[in-house]
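Journal club side-thread
Mid-discussion, someone asked how the predicted structure for our own chain would compare to the paper's figures. Pasting it here so we can look after the session.
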Amino acid sequence: MSNPSEAELNEIVRRIVRQTMQGGSTQAAASAASAGTNLTPRPQAPPVQVESKMTTGKTVALGADHGGFPLKETLKAHLGDQGYRVEDCGTYSAEAVDYPDFAYAVAKMVSNGEAWRGIIIDGAGIGSCMAANKVSGVRAAMCYDHATAVNSREHNNANVLTLGAGLIGSSLARQIVDTWLSTEFGGGRHARRVDKIMAIEKNN
């Protein structure tokens, strides 16, 4: 086998160089494509929609006697800030009045379906609770802490809340109101028992 001539050697070298350059270009193109893919911004996921806790449109009937008047005004502003529509059933000053009148006004709005829930404030919360429970369809509960607020809603499906302004401060009252309004009725065995409560009302 004869040795290749100088011209043939030069041709072999040129061919190898061309192949090397072509391979390098291909690799560079592949790298560029890969880099381009990595640099291409991915479509962003849509922002998570957080369900609003605002309760615009739900009407809360609010009433108090003279002993509960200052706390009523505080809660009226607080409920408005939370997005509730507030129906103020009075009283409208610290002048002495009779609590059954305002308990009845609030309870009647709930009974008639004019209000989603009702809140009544007097000195101790007891008398207003008694008066409100005389109105058909009303299940009033006097609450004085978080546990009673939860229980009255979860177990008893209370639709009227009574508070004693002489027993709790405004901060605790706001917490009770928020808990009471946001706690759902548990249903189940509790529904059967609430039905029995309402049956007593119908049978007497």
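Post-session note: DSSP finds seven helices and five strands in the chain.
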